[in-house]
């Protein structure tokens, strides 16, 4: 059984000398660096080199989670690295990474549901859609759809939110609805400071459009 497509703890509430410690947010620069590294690994590497790079990226993201005391942003990007690794590995060996990504996304959402404009919700929805269901794993299209819709309530014009929901609808045979959300993805604003991720996502959007055109 394989993951269908590509697509990665404890809450710190410390007391020190009877004084609450304020959680430390992840630095925007550190997050951007992690995002840009992910795009390079995900889109420009292949095979063993890609798996090795994803492993290193998971280590970096884990350190950022620790340094930021489990910020929702850093947990989300750790989960993205883990879920991407699952996609590359495939087979039953991928499921541990998918499970870890699920746990981190759930924790991120519990801390801040709208984190990164609904990105954690979107990635978790994609995982539910793309991994096998019971008894192999946790896959559930019903849960996926609920999460996709919530992400779109938070970010109705987001590129990723609309693209992944359009892909889900395509897989479900809902082609007319899929086209509506894919059009939103096509018209979405660019990803700030992330040209490679923007370029490659737009290529994926174009590929899904071509598949939809065959269903017209």
Write up this protein.
By secondary structure, the protein is mainly alpha-helical. The chain contains 9 helices and 2 strands, in the order ββααααααααα. It has helices at 28-44, 47-67, 72-89, 95-111, 115-130, 141-154, 159-171, 175-186, 195-213, and strands spanning 15-16, 19-20. Helix 7 (159-171) packs parallel to helix 9. The two termini are 31 Å apart.
Arrangement of strands in the largest sheet: 1-2
- Enumerate the spans where pLDDT stays under 50 for 5 or more consecutive residues: 4-23
What radius of gyration results from the CA coordinates? 17 Å
Q: Assess the beta-strand content as a share of residues.
A: under 5%
Number of helices: 9
Instruction: Give the oligomer, counting copies of the same chain as homo and different chains as hetero.
Output: single chain
For the biggest sheet, the summary is: 2 strands, antiparallel
Q: What is the average of the pLDDT values?
A: 89
Give the class from helix and strand content and strand pairing: mainly alpha
């Amino acid at each position: 059984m394989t993951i269908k497509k590509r697509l990665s703890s404890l809450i710190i509430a410390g007391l020190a000398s009877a004084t609450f410690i304020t959680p430390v947010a992840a630095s925007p620069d550190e997050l951007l660096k992690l995002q840009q590294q992910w795009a390079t690994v995900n889109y420009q590497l292949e095979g063993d080199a890609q798996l090795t790079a994803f492993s290193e990226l998971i280590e970096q993201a884990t350190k950022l989670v620790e340094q930021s005391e489990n910020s929702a942003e850093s947990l989300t990007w750790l989960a993205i690295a883990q879920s991407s690794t699952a996609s590359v590995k495939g087979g039953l060996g991928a499921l541990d990474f998918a499970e870890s990504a699920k746990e981190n996304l759930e924790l991120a959402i519990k801390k801040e549901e709208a984190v990164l404009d609904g990105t954690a919700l979107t990635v978790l929805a994609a995982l539910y859609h793309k991994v096998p269901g019971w008894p192999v794993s946790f896959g559930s299209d019903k849960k996926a759809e609920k999460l996709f819709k919530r992400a779109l309530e938070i970010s109705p014009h987001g590129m990723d939110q609309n693209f992944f929901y359009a892909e889900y609808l395509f897989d479900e045979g809902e082609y007319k609805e899929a086209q509506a959300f894919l059009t939103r993805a096509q018209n979405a604003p660019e990803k700030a400071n992330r040209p490679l991720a923007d370029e490659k996502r737009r290529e994926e959007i174009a590929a899904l459009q071509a598949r939809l055109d065959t269903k017209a």
